[in-house]
Design a protein that fits this description.
The chain is mostly beta strands and about 450 residues long. The chain is about 15% helix and about 50% strand. It has seven helices and 21 strands. It has a 21-stranded antiparallel sheet that branches. The longest helix is centred in the middle third of the chain and has 15 residues. It starts with a helix and ends with a strand.
């Protein structure tokens, strides 16, 4: 059981970031900014992403603890460090992991109306969130001897995971000199999905009036559900068969859904602008390869000992008793889930404009740019238990015609010292960009509460 708890803490230490991309948002030198705000004020004639290389995004992090808290070589006993970390973590701490791979990316300016820009493509996404099951982690590691008459809540068990492919097409229009509006239609093809949320019920050990050595173990109003799609069809497959199955689901053979992104840019004047966007306003219907596992009911049993003292007992005995008490039903019914809705907004002030033609600060055919800008960006994302939030201050700087940068300082659930940096090079039509967050923590990744990296190659005209 100690190994299971160590594994859970390690997972929390490796993953813990939301889908916030503060360095990339409103960085209109890059076409990938259109994925965050289809109403971004881009100035391209066309763009083409290098297949499978135009955007590679991965992140990892933690809310609540770090690997260093448990595995630091500081002379303390590891059992003491595990117990301290267990007491530190709460049921509000969580892991999230996001990975994106842009497979195809393209866009072009309309020949009939130069104020309209079309963009589209395909990307693969993995999105995982899991809340730390505090009550049952304590129950598993410490037993219930010291927690008589205290309820362990099944509601602390909550999480979801999804692997999917997204086909999208966007429309961006410069309505007038001050307003740009955009929308992006999305077709989701889910490859794998699992979700357990809104669980109910408690497990409580009570001392009975008959004596101090007689206990009553009560499972009350238990209702725990795990919905899965795409798992059953993989059970009997191996190797290449699994890969072929997953690719087939990505190619519109999975459970399908629809969504939309909306966004705008409003220029209050030539130098001051506000932006906003809503991403993944949509749903997926799961009706293929569906299995839902549900355990519900009430049960009371008595004994002369508290049954969960894993230091001297086999935990499988308790699990067998629990399975007998609360039978597990397997269902194959259709279900629907919403995508994790995300909001972005920013205020930006640009300055230091070069328009006298004496410097090599912009590309041929490009409007004379402001070389500097600063502002604030806000982000939020819906999650199973509560929304996640982040606020960023940013500074944009353009060096010559081939180098643009952005520096961010972000406050979020994980850190108050998250420094991010994006560098984008533009040599002729070839663009390469790279971005990383939490730069101050890279000196000791074991202590790090977060790390994020994204990079890509584009052809931009």
């Amino acid at each position: 059981m100690r190994a299971i708890l160590l594994f859970a803490i390690s997972l929390l230490s490796l993953f813990g970031y939301s889908q916030n991309k503060e360095t990339l948002y409103d960085f209109t030198d890059l076409p990938q900014s259109l994925l965050l705000n289809p109403g971004a004020d881009v100035r391209f004639n066309y763009h083409l992403g290098v297949p499978f290389l135009s955007q590679i995004h991965v992140n990892a992090g933690l809310k609540g603890a770090s690997l260093y808290d448990v595995f630091a070589d500081d002379g303390r006993d590891i059992n003491d460090k595990i117990e301290t970390t267990l007491n530190t973590l709460t049921s509000k701490d969580y892991l999230t992991a996001t990975q994106q791979l842009e497979i195809v990316s393209f866009g072009w300016k309309s020949k009939k109306n130069e104020k309209i820009y079309f963009s589209g493509g395909i990307y693969q996404e993995l999105d995982v969130i899991g809340y730390f099951p505090k009550d049952f982690a304590v129950l598993a590691y410490q037993g219930n001897q010291d927690f008589l008459n205290q309820s362990f809540r099944f509601s602390t068990i909550s999480g979801s995971a999804e692997l999917l492919a997204v086909y999208h097409f966007g429309y961006t229009k410069k309505v007038n000199k001050s307003m740009t509006f955009g929308a992006r239609a999305k077709l989701y093809s889910s490859i794998f999905h699992a979700r357990s949320a809104k669980n109910k019920g408690t497990f409580t050990t009570l001392e009975t009036p008959q004596g101090s050595n007689i206990y009553q173990h009560v499972i009350s109003n238990a209702d725990v559900t795990l919905r899965t799609s795409g798992y059953r069809g993989l059970k009997d497959l191996e190797g290449k068969e699994i890969a072929n199955k997953l690719i087939g689901r990505a190619l519109l053979g999975g459970n399908l859904g629809l969504g939309i992104d909306l966004g705008f840019t409003h220029k209050i004047n030539e130098q001051l602008a506000i932006t906003g966007s809503v991403n993944d306003l949509g749903v997926i219907v799961y009706n293929k390869d569906v299995e839902t596992y549900r355990a519900r009911g009430n049960y009371v049993f008595e004994g002369f000992e508290t049954p969960i003292q894993f230091s001297g007992q086999n935990p499988e005995n308790f699990l067998d008793e629990l399975e007998e008490a609360i039978p597990l039903d397997t269902l194959s019914t259709t279900y629907v889930t919403m995508r994790p809705l995300k909001f972005n907004g920013s205020v930006k002030y640009s300055f230091n404009k070069y328009d006298d033609g004496t410097c090599n600060c912009y590309l041929e055919g490009e409007q004379p740019p402001y070389l500097d800008a600063f502002g604030i960006q806000l982000f939020s994302q819906f999650r199973p238990k509560r929304s996640q939030y982040a606020a960023s201050l940013f500074y944009y700087k353009r060096f010559f015609s081939f180098l643009r940068t952005k520096l961010t300082y972000t406050i979020d659930d994980y850190s108050y010292n998250n420094i991010g940096f994006l560098l984008s090079t533009h040599i002729d039509k070839i663009n390469f960009y790279i971005s990383a967050n939490n730069l101050l923590e890279y000196t000791n990744l074991a202590k790090a509460r977060g790390a994020s990296l994204q990079l890509g190659f584009n052809i931009i005209m």
